[in-house]
Amino acid sequence: MRPFDPRLVRYARAARGLLALTVCLGVTSTILIIAQAGLLARALATAARGIGPGPLGATMAGLLLVIAGRAAVSWAGEASALRASAAVQSQLRRRLTAHTALLGPGWLNGERPGEIATLATAGLDGLDTYFSRYLPQVVLACAVPAAVVARIAAADWLSAVIVAVTLPLVPVFAVLVGLHTRARTQRQWQLLARLGGHFLDVVEGLPTLKVLGQGRHQAQVIARVTGEHRRLTMATLRQAFLSALVLDLAATLATALVAVEVGLRLLGGHIGYQQAMLILLLTPEVYLPLRAVGTFYHASQAGAAAGGRAFEILGTPPARPAAAGGGRADLRAGGLELTDVTLTYPGRAVPALDRLSLRITPGERLVICGPTGAGKSSLLAVLLRLREPDSGCVRSGGVDASGLDLRSWLDQVAWVPQHPTLFAGTIRDNIALGRPAAPAGQVAAAARLAGAASFIARLPAGYDTPVGERGATLSAGQRQRIALARAFLRDAPVLLLDEPTAHLDGESAATLRAAMATALAGRTIVVVSHDESWSRWAGRRLVLGAGLPPARAVAPA
Fold first, then answer.
1. What is the greatest pairwise CA distance in the chain?
2. What's 414's DSSP letter?
3. Tens digit of each residue's pLDDT (9 = 90 or more) over 79-101
4. Is residue 389's pLDDT more than 60?
5. pLDDT at position 176, please?
6. From residue 410, how far is each of 86, 96, 144, 232, 277 by CA, in Å?
7. More confident residue, 257 or 550
């Protein structure tokens, strides 16, 4: 880890003010350290010569003021560092969340959500030690030794030479030990991220694991990973203690060397008492910041490792152009057109879509069918621009989608995935997720169109009934209806539905299709479904499958 990571300044503005304040407080602390040593040496020399209490009292008063000043500077530095650390963590979390959303589902599919959650929470919490302990000591380690050696040189050049020669030993030992510790710390963070991700997966899939009788086995896996993380943490702590011992030993031997040569010259009368005391008081202050840097280096490595991972994610360029800028899409009039679109997922040799060409006119009702793995959901992802094709292009109104503003494109598309996500909140909140300011009447109308109004009316609080995390209090069919109502409320000109009636009975599915045929007339509707009933409802059917051409349009029966 570098003494100061410049990416903090780039991604977190609060770090800039902290750095400036830390430098100012470090310079102030250096001046106070030299003043304290000078006043204490004068006080001791005055007391040894037996001079009256007047000069000694004035010196002691000044010394007390300097000590109080050092305490105030130390408190101010730590308080400001903790506040700035909280601000930096908040800024990094917001930027990490926003950039992760910009990277999109394509990038997230290759990551572990649990690791990202651990990184944004416990991982970035580790930056507290980095800011409140390590970073101020780095500034002191740069300012204090140079200033103190210069002051010692002004008092006695021989002692300054000895200090200057022995001073590099401390950082050299710190670097050697740190290189060995860094790999352990990185491994420790990777294990923590793996543990967080695996634990999240286990909690989400706990009902399935219980049914399959694998709950005990997964508990053993978590226990094994936890034990490995504990052992690695203890090994890292042992390494940190060894580092502290090595640094303390080097600093102690160097201080003893200066003390011996100053004592011998003092006995020989070649140096004054006050001068000798000043050197002896200042010498430990030369090594102290360097020793503290080595100690806090290990304590801050967990946060630094998490911060490095966060910077890697923030530095990952999105697979598509930024949402800002570009022309505005008009999907209501322009329709959708795919030309020779090929999409291959990372790590797969066979493309999900292979030179697919398709024209969807405004207001058309299209059903996409085919066996599992034929590329139906991939086609929806391309139409949503959640996936950019490897080759070919997507157009609307003859304009390449890559030149159109992504935000305006998504504002005109409503999507219901095969497994919709509901968020902790009320039914009303989940239906109005795409239009938070929608009037209650429009929310109710969307619920009636989706066939959800009847079961909502039977709930104790109606539309104000909490659905629980991921809609835990609702059945699969009820969650599907809420998701459909959410899409209908968007009033978007393009509606993409992935198996919209998979959790509905035949009568409810027929009622939904009839309602959509009338209430959604004029909208472009693309439905992915294995249900042949949708083929009779649609104006056109597109068959995707192995052994078939990239796309084949079949007229409805």
1. 116
2. E
3. 888 888 888 888 888 888 888 87
4. yes
5. 66
6. 34, 22, 56, 46, 74
7. 257
Mean pLDDT of 186-201: 66
Long-range contacts of 471-480 (CB under 8 A, 24+ apart): 471/421, 471/422, 471/430, 474/422, 475/503, 476/503, 477/503, 477/504, 477/505, 477/508, 478/452, 479/420, 479/422, 479/503, 480/416, 480/420, 480/504
**Percentage of residues of the chain with pLDDT beyond 70:** 82
Q: How far apart are CA 511 and CA 499, in angstroms?
A: 15
- For 102, 230, 387, 529, the CA distances from 336, given in Å and listed in that order, are 23, 55, 15, 20
Looking at residue 455, its amino acid is F
Residues paired with 359 in a beta bridge: 337
3-state secondary structure 241-266: HHHHHHHHHHHHHHHHHHHHHHHHHH
**Model confidence pTM above 0.85:** no
CATH superfamily of 7-314: ABC transporter type 1, transmembrane domain (1.20.1560.10)
Mean pLDDT computed over every residue of the chain:
79
Give the pLDDT confidence score for residue 553 in this predicted structure. 39
Q: What are the b/e assignments for 292-316, b being 16+ CB within 10 Å? A: bbbbbbbbbbbbbbbbebbbebbee
Question: What type of residue is 508?
Answer: S
E strand or H helix at 88:
helix 53-108
Domain locations along the chain: 7-314, 331-554
pLDDT at 186: 63
Give the three-state DSSP class for 366. strand
**331-554 falls under which CATH superfamily?**
P-loop containing nucleotide triphosphate hydrolases (3.40.50.300)
Decide: 416 and 498 in contact? Cβ < 8 Å. yes
Which residue has better confidence, 239 or 26? 26
- Give the list of residues 6+ apart from residue 451 with CB closer than 8 angstroms, or none: 481, 484, 504, 508, 511, 512, 515
Q: Which two tokens mark 143?
A: 């300012």
**Across 190-214, average pLDDT:** 67
Find the angle CA(110)-CA(112)-CA(113) to the nearest 5 degrees.
115
Note the pLDDT of residue 68: 92
